[in-house]
């Protein structure tokens, strides 16, 4: 059986769906505070849900009991709940999960992390710390390092308001960064669990072509046949915001935006392409998909 930590999130729920479509036995870790409709959806897929929390080591030990594999996609950057913090949840909680999995005799551990090119901030420090723990755990592991999720960074959540043809641009919008569709990352995770060449390996996951925000906007303008209204946030302002932040999540968010402004989120997908050979969602396909589902105003 496969334990998915982060099962109610964007990525984790898609991983659960794909695993169940392949008739794999899946257990999903859910919180007492998880949205009931998300838990019910997992259960309707045939996922066995178990209540637990990265902030509760005892619950992790119970959740890992009898598991063959553990997949963790958990991150507080989007789905932050009361009591969450990068240090407590993203770092210590994930370290406790690695320890619980090891103690339970889990054979395979899959971690969704971030690209190595990203700058230092509390979030990247947490990810690197957990990566090291996974690699030295003695379990077979795979570490997947995706680029920017299209569904997050090219959505109204972050200021890319395509339904209203508006976008917030970090920097001047000419620096290029690596993107990938969330669904493609889920497919990589599922494939990696049984692929012999994926053992004890780290993979960058992204499209072979990097995009600037100006290029992304032009794609949306062409397909949507409407011009975008752009608001620019200078890279210097983002750097100052990160330096002045008193909260680790705020500092990390500003730092990530500064990385985008300066083109510091880039990966090399050649190894993943060679091993898995998956056809990835193109930027045009992503834009077409979301524009087709956007209500006409």
In short:
Helix content is 44%, strand content 18%. The protein has helices at 10-21, 36-44, 57-64, 86-103, 122-135, 150-153, 182-192, 213-224, 235-244, 248-262, 270-276, 283-292; strands at residues 2-5, 26-30, 48-51, 69-72, 108-112, 140-146, 148-149, 160-161, 166-170, 176-177, 179-180, 201-205, 211-212, 229-233. A 7-stranded parallel β-sheet has the order 3-2-1-4-5-6-12, sandwiched between helices.
Q: Could you describe the 3D structure shown?
A:
- A hairpin with a 4-residue loop joins strand 8 (160-161) and strand 9.
- This protein has a seven-stranded parallel β-sheet with strand order 3-2-1-4-5-6-12, sandwiched between helices. Strands 8-9-14 form a three-stranded mixed β-sheet. It has a two-stranded parallel sheet with strand order 7-11.
- With 297 residues, the protein is an alpha/beta fold.
- 44% of the residues lie in helices and 18% in strands.
- The model has no long low-confidence stretch (mean pLDDT 94).
- The radius of gyration is 19 Å and the shape is globular.
- It has helices at 10-21, 36-44, 57-64, 86-103, 122-135, 150-153, 182-192, 213-224, 235-244, 248-262, 270-276, 283-292; strands spanning 2-5, 26-30, 48-51, 69-72, 108-112, 140-146, 148-149, 160-161, 166-170, 176-177, 179-180, 201-205, 211-212, 229-233.
């Amino acid at each position: 059986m496969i334990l998915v930590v982060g099962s109610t999130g964007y990525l984790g729920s898609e991983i659960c769906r794909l695993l169940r479509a392949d008739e794999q036995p899946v257990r999903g870790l859910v919180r007492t505070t998880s949205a009931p409709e998300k838990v019910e959806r997992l259960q309707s897929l045939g996922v066995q849900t178990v209540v637990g929390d990265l902030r509760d080591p005892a619950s992790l030990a119970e959740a890992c009991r009898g598991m063959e594999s553990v997949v963790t996609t958990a991150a507080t950057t989007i789905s932050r709940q009361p009591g969450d913090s990068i240090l407590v949840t993203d770092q210590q909680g994930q370290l406790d999960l690695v320890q619980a999995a090891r103690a339970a005799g889990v054979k395979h551990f899959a971690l969704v992390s971030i690209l190595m090119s990203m700058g230092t901030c509390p979030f990247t420090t947490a990810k690197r710390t957990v990566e090291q723990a996974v690699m030295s755990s003695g379990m077979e592991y795979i570490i997947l390092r995706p680029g920017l999720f299209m569904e997050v960074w090219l959505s109204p959540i972050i200021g890319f308001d395509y339904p209203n043809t508006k976008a917030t641009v970090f920097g001047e919008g000419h620096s290029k960064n690596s993107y990938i569709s969330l669904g493609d990352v889920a497919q990589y995770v599922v494939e990696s669990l049984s692929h012999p060449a994926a053992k004890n390996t780290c993979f960058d996951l992204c499209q072979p072509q990097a995009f600037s925000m100006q290029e992304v906007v032009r794609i949306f303008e062409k397909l949507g046949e409407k011009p975008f209204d752009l608001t620019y946030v200078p890279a210097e302002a983002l750097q100052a915001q990160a330096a002045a932040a008193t909260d680790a999540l705020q500092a990390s968010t500003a730092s990530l935006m500064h990385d985008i402004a300066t083109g510091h989120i880039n990966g090399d997908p050649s190894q993943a392409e060679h091993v898995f050979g998956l056809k990835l969602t193109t930027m045009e396909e992503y834009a077409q998909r979301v524009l087709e589902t956007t209500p006409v105003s």
